């Protein structure tokens, strides 16, 4: 069976318990790897570009690049390797107005690459977008991400995975409850 953007959306929004979106679970990560590992490779090579002619297709490609990569490559640098492409696609989708035909929850996933960005400029835009188009709890989560990027210019909780040395201020921050995602 040929997987389509509808396959991705049915899996993510109908089959998956929303609690699985936000927690590490090896069994779930293996399921995503088995069902969508090849699709992630295709997306990373730009081969899913035909999906972009529909708002739901843009959303699905964003989920593959942003979320499936995090599940399939958990705790490795590869988890973040598609962030720039996912952000560019999300920015194009927002510019095209694709977000206006999505539900608030769908829209929050289309915009998630903004939240994952390490750019203060991108987070300024993300704050506005999440305030206008996402559920309030997603907006609050964006504010937390933005505060970390505004303070450090990166996400300190990724330092170990990415082989970066933490500053003394980052080490202190990481010892606080709720400092990582």
Describe the structure.
The protein has a single domain (5-174), classed as Tetratricopeptide repeat domain (Serine Threonine Protein Phosphatase 5, Tetratricopeptide repeat). It has helices at residues 5-15, 26-44, 55-72, 83-96, 104-116, 120-133, 136-152, 159-162, 168-174. By secondary structure, the protein is mostly helical. It is 65% helix and 0% strand. The protein is globular.
The run of helices and strands is HHHHHHHHH
Any idea how many domains?
Answer: 1
Beta-strand content = under 5%
Number of helices: 9
Q: Tell me the CATH architecture.
A: Alpha Horseshoe
Instruction: State the end-to-end CA separation.
Output: 35 Å
Number of strands: 0
Structure described in brief:
The chain is mainly alpha-helical. It has helices spanning 5-15, 26-44, 55-72, 83-96, 104-116, 120-133, 136-152, 159-162, 168-174.
Task: Provide the fold topology.
Elements: H1 5-15, H2 26-44, H3 55-72, H4 83-96, H5 104-116, H6 120-133, H7 136-152, H8 159-162, H9 168-174
